[in-house]
From TrEMBL:
Pfam families in the cross-refs: HMGL-like (PF00682)
The protein's name: Hydroxymethylglutaryl-CoA lyase
Lineage of the species this protein comes from: Bacteria, Bacillati, Bacillota, Bacilli, Bacillales
Statement: the UniProt record of this protein carries the keyword Metal-binding: yes
GO molecular function: lyase activity
Length: 298
């Protein structure tokens, strides 16, 4: 029982670039995001309005937001950690705001400098204000399977965080395998519980591909009825506050899988390829996507 249509959110400009040492100029980011926009993807997470000291690679979020073209039908979203980030994001222009926290107490503290309990009162007004401004709001929950500091995270802990964010009014939740360690049996354990509580169209899966398990995990997630995934072109990225974590699953690899399975995405493989080769060239290194490497070698 595979889905007919899958919705992909391109997170390369945010999750991808936030962990790259090589700086990309604002003009190059704008050109690249515009190319990604033309690929038929439904949502592009274009940057992050976090503290520039914490994520220097995205310190030009405001300018990027002002300069990218906006294609009707594409949602342009950004990561926002607090009210200050939301104000800046609204000024720069967003259709969607993504708040974020972790299911793991220690990762939450390392990533956003607060305990889980201290994070809720920071995020609640962000969700409320963003909804009042007419924006789509996604809640990211990180380390839903394994935490680099605490090890296994229980599905019940993940459920508690999801419940709270949904109560605040987020439209949907993206469940993050932040360090890319999960295998399909862990996907089963979590999704059985999650989908018992929440509708599948509210849940997005966000896999990093550290151990090469992301495609298997996506396949398993679709078997549970999940139809929305986050991915980064070429497979770039990682989390700066989860050491050793590799990039997101490559949009190119996901698209190859979905096309092969006959699942519609509305995406154009060639445009995506163009965007992948562009950023690969700017970064001056080969990106991990195997589909990209294969097509580039032809
Ligand atoms: P803090 O230092 O605790 O913040 O950082 P604060 O509220 O105490 O403020 C300290 C100073 O920062 C103040 O300035 C604020 O104005 C300023 P001062 O008065 O000292 O001059 N400030 C800001 N400046 C610009 N933009 C802002 C902002 N907020 C405060 N938004 C904070 C708390 C959350 C801001 C910080 O910890 C932070 O920026 N963390 C971001 C970490 C991050 O970006 N991690 C990566 C993204 S998450 C991820 O990758 C996982 C995901 O992909 C899913 C998955 O894979 O699992 C989403
Ligand atoms: Mg991530």
């Amino acid at each position: 029982r595979m889905p007919e249509f899958v919705q992909i959110k391109e997170v390369g400009p945010r999750d991808g670039l936030q962990n790259e040492q090589q700086r990309i100029s604002t003009a190059d980011k704008v050109h690249w995001i515009n190319t990604l926009s033309e690929s038929g993807v439904k949502e592009v997470e274009y940057s992050s309005f976090v503290h520039p000291k914490w994520v220097p690679a995205l310190s030009d979020a405001h300018e990027v937001g002002k300069r990218i073209m906006r294609i009707p039908g594409v949602r342009y979203s950004a990561l926002v950690p607090n009210m200050k980030g939301l104000e800046l994001a609204l000024e720069a222009g967003i259709d969607g705001a993504s708040v974020f926290m972790s299911a793991s107490e220690t990762h939450n503290r390392k990533n956003i400098n607060k305990s889980i309990e201290e994070t809720y009162p920071v995020l609640q007004p962000v969700v409320t204000e963003a909804k009042q401004a007419g924006k789509h709001v996604t809640g990211y929950v990180s380390t839903v399977f394994d935490c680099p500091y605490e090890g296994k995270i229980s599905p019940d802990q993940v459920l508690r965080v999801c419940e709270q964010l949904l109560e605040f009014g987020v439209d949907d939740i993206s469940l993050g395998d932040t360090i890319g360690t999960a295998v399909p049996s862990q996907v089963d354990q979590l999704l059985v519980k999650v989908l018992d509580r929440f509708p599948s169209d509210k849940m997005i899966m966000h896999f990093h591909d550290t151990r090469g398990m992301a495609i298997a995990n996506i396949m398993r997630s679709m078997e549970h009825g999940i139809t929305r995934f986050d991915s980064a072109v070429g497979g770039l990225g990682g989390c700066p506050y989860a050491s050793g974590a590799a990039g997101n699953v490559a949009t190119n690899d996901v698209l190859y899988l979905l096309n092969g399975l006959g699942i519609k995405t509305g995406m154009n493989e060639q445009k995506l390829q163009e965007a992948a080769l562009y950023i690969q060239n700017k970064l001056g290194k080969t990106l991990p996507s195997k589909s990209l490497a294969y097509v580039a070698s032809q």
